[in-house]
Design brief:
Blueprint lengths: L27 E6 L4 H13 L4 E5 L2 H4 L23 H7 L9 E5 L4 H14 L9 E3 L4 H7 L6 H18 L3 E2 L1 E4 L1 H5 L4 H21 L4 H4 L3 E7 L3 H21 L6 H4 L3 E5 L11 H16 L3 E3 L12 H16 L14 H24 L2 H6 L2 H19 L26 H16 L2 H16 L5 H9 L4 H12 L6
Parallel strand pairs: 1-2, 1-9, 2-3, 3-4, 4-5, 6-7, 7-8, 8-9
Helix pairs in contact: 1-3, 4-19, 8-10, 8-14, 10-12, 10-14, 12-13, 18-19, 18-20
């Protein structure tokens, strides 16, 4: 379905959602960060801002993602390991100490407990004197891909989608500049999907969220302008550029044709890009800098609105400050030295790019038709169709690596006889004890009767049909913990068990 390329900023936005693209405004340079306690992560955020980061991106530890407090028995050994531990409003206050939230855009990679973390964030901003309506940023809030590719789910899919659409409605009134969901293809690709599958399954999930919001009584143009997406930039340089261009075209046509959106902002696909963590190698770690640079350039030539560049040592552990700085400098060199930002769509009109864009669009449309015939994304997930497609693609990819058909530099070709990895960052085990002690102090110093009253009100709302966001906010303001709020919702919704 190849077409003569339209101008940037024109429907269906193949060439970019803005006429000038980066000539008038660069993408937001985010660096994903968070580890240990809120104090440790706060220091990293101040460092990143001092080095030129223009937006923060928060990683949370597994207990926080799974709705467990830091002192939960199952949290032992995982507190602060893959992200920062946030158990209550007190932790969030420390995490953003000295950072003016009205002036900084913050992205939070959080899904099952997204409504709780958004409440904490809004409360901290208000403590700073910020206007809630001026806060900008994103919560990932994409639960369907957790059932497909990542696994940090708590509740069954249907009540989980209720929480998401409740956040759409509440934030549309209370935080109108906030992106209430970042529908993620990134983790789908990290699980082993192809580029076509990444887009197809992401847009199938998007259709489920949009239809769920419409079924809940929201007008599409009331919430669609605040939808955002999160994609992977993988190794296939030209394919990735074409993927981002095809994604905009597919989305614009879906929103206009299927959902009847009329506001131009509802038709514009706005997305964050992260370079591909799954391509980083523990062998010859400095070579990862080159991989990341190529992937970042593909994201820029593809027209993303924000970008995170992975650090060279992330195959070994959390990135060191030096590695994070090199990753950020990679973006800055592309932005200020490469010259690619002087043209809105530098690759537009390229025969190979236009052909690849059309081929990817056609492949995505075939998948969407198949999923529609099955009854939509929820049904495709429940039957395991999407999971099997990804597993098959991942198996095929690994076969190619092991046979040598696909070359991975330093792994199956061009190895070094002695490969000395750079020193990896190590977390102090005492950080977990510090976090657990602070949580206990929070519980001891708050009004337990007020917490119980607000948690009971939340549970009653969950048993009815009211919007869950206001009672979550009220419980959060009383220093109710992530685990306490999640447990009350589990009392009503139950827990999801993978078939």
């Amino acid at each position: 379905m190849t077409e003569a390329p339209e101008k940037p900023g024109e429907f269906p936005y193949t060439r970019g959602i803005y006429p000038e693209m980066y000539r008038s405004r660069l993408w937001t340079m985010r660096q994903y960060g968070g580890f240990g306690t809120a104090e440790e992560s706060n220091r990293r955020y101040h460092y990143l801002l001092s080095q030129g980061t223009t937006g923060l991106s928060v990683a949370f530890d597994l207990p926080t993602q799974m709705g467990m407090d830091s002192d939960h028995p199952m949290a032992a050994g995982e507190v602060g390991r893959v992200g920062v531990a946030i158990a209550s409003l007190a932790d969030m206050e420390v995490l953003f100490r000295g950072i003016p939230l009205e002036k900084v855009s913050t992205s939070m990679t959080i899904n099952s407990t997204a409504a709780i973390l958004l409440a904490y964030y809004a409360l901290v901003a208000e403590q700073q004197g910020a206007d809630r309506k001026k806060l900008s940023g994103t919560i990932q809030n994409d639960i369907l891909k957790e059932y497909i590719a990542r696994g940090t789910y708590i509740y069954p899919p249907r009540p989980a989608i209720r929480i998401i659409t409740d956040v759409f409605a509440w934030a549309g009134r209370e935080m109108p500049e906030w992106n209430t969901i970042s529908i993620s293809g990134y983790h789908i690709r990290e699980a082993g999907s192809t580029a076509v599958q990444e887009l197809a399954f992401t847009f199938a999930n998007a259709c489920a969220y949009i239809q769920g919001a419409i079924d809940a009584g929201l007008a599409v143009d009331a919430f669609a302008p605040r939808l955002s997406f999160f994609f992977n930039s993988h190794n296939g340089f030209l394919e990735e550029i074409a993927k981002f261009r095809a994604a905009r075209r597919i989305y614009a046509r879906l929103m206009r044709g299927r959902f009847g959106a009329r506001d131009p902002r509802s038709l514009m696909l706005r997305f964050h890009v992260q370079t591909a963590g799954s391509t980083l190698t523990a062998q010859q770690t400095d070579v990862n800098i080159v991989r990341t640079a190529l992937q970042a350039m593909a994201a820029v030539l593809g027209g993303g609105q924000s970008l995170h560049t992975n650090s060279r040592d992330e195959a070994l552990g959390l990135p060191t400050e030096e590695s994070v700085r090199i990753a950020l400098r990679t973006q800055q060199i592309i932005a200020y030295e490469s010259g690619v930002t002087n043209t809105a769509d530098p690759v537009g009109g390229s025969e190979v790019i236009e052909r690849l864009t059309g081929e990817i669009e056609e492949g995505v449309e075939r998948y969407l038709e198949t999923i529609d015939r099955m009854g939509g994304a929820l049904r495709a997930i429940e039957t395991g169709f999407i999971q099997r497609e990804i597993q098959s693609a991942a198996y095929h990819y690994q076969q190619e690596v092991e046979s040598g058909k696909r070359i991975v530099v330093g792994v199956n070709r061009f190895q070094l006889p002695e490969d000395h990895a750079i020193p990896a960052m190590r977390l102090d085990p005492a950080l977990e004890r510090t976090q657990v002690e602070r949580l206990r102090q929070v519980r001891a110093s708050r009004s337990q009767s007020a917490v119980e009253q607000k948690l009971t009100a939340l549970e009653e709302t969950a048993r009815g049909t009211g919007n869950l966001a206001p009672p979550i906010l009220e419980a959060a303001a009383c220093y109710a913990t992530v685990g306490e709020i999640s447990d009350r919702l589990k009392n009503v919704f139950g827990e999801y068990r993978e078939p």
